[in-house]
Amino acid sequence: MNTFTPEQLIATNKSNVQAMATFGTNVFAGYEKLVGLNLAATKAMMTESFDNLQTVMGAKDPSEFLSLQTGSMQSMAEKSTAYANHVAAIVAESGADFTKKFEESFAESQKSLTALVENIAKNAPAGSEAAMAMIKSTVSASQNAIESAQNSAKNTMATVESNYAAMTEQAVKATKSATKKA
After folding, report:
1. Looking at the domain assignment, is residue 1 inside a domain?
2. Does the residue 110 lie in any domain?
3. Within 13 Å of residue 69, how many CA atoms lie on the same side as its CB?
4. Do residues 84 and 168 make contact, with C-beta atoms less than 8 angstroms apart?
5. Which of 29, 59, 113, 140 would bridge with 64, disulfide CB 3.0–4.6 Å?
6. What's the CA gap between 42 and 83, in Å, rounded?
7. How far apart are the C-alpha atoms of 168 and 85, rounded to whole Å?
8. What is the DSSP string of 43-94?
9. CA dihedral in degrees (4, 10, 16, 17; nearest 10)?
10. Which residue segment(s) compose the domain that 138 sits in?
């Protein structure tokens, strides 16, 4: 007879705690990357702003001044787009890590829960078959609902990423078009 032992329950709990610790570490690593990116971007922005100010102050006429400003704005727009893409990449990477770990942990929990329900069903007293069938059905329905929610979340993230890429591309094109006209 296959029974679900207290040792298996303890092992499952340890596995869940380890998964939470890994998740926390991954979240912190993603946060670290964002902080590093923000520090580098801020430093570069300050340096470029002062360089641009010195260049613009050296303009000999209004036409040159406007030309220098237009070039600076285009450069800023391109760098802002690159920054946004870096942020999106960090968030996507962190999200993918989280999703992978969550799915692995969920699969293990699902196996443990199924084993527990099966063990309870095997050891249930006579006449409780209807109640056990209802419990099994409820567990199965909840697992299917969670899987459906996971698939829906994946589809939503794919749509968001696609829309973000299209929006970024349009913004770059619009900026280039506006600076050419200027």
Report:
1. no
2. yes
3. 9
4. yes
5. 59
6. 11
7. 8
8. HHHHHHHHHHHHHHHT-SSHHHHHHHHHHHHHHHHHHHHHHHHHHHHHHHHH
9. 180
10. 6-181
pLDDT in tens, 8-62: 778 777 877 887 888 888 888 989 999 999 999 999 999 998 998 899 888 899 8
Classify 4 as helix, strand or coil: coil
Side chain identity at 84, as an amino acid letter?
A
* Two tokens, residue 111: 């196996």
In whole angstroms, what is the distance from residue 182 CA to residue 176 CA? Answer: 10
Selection from 87, 96, 101, 86 nearest residue 23 by Cα:
101
Domain count, the chain: 1
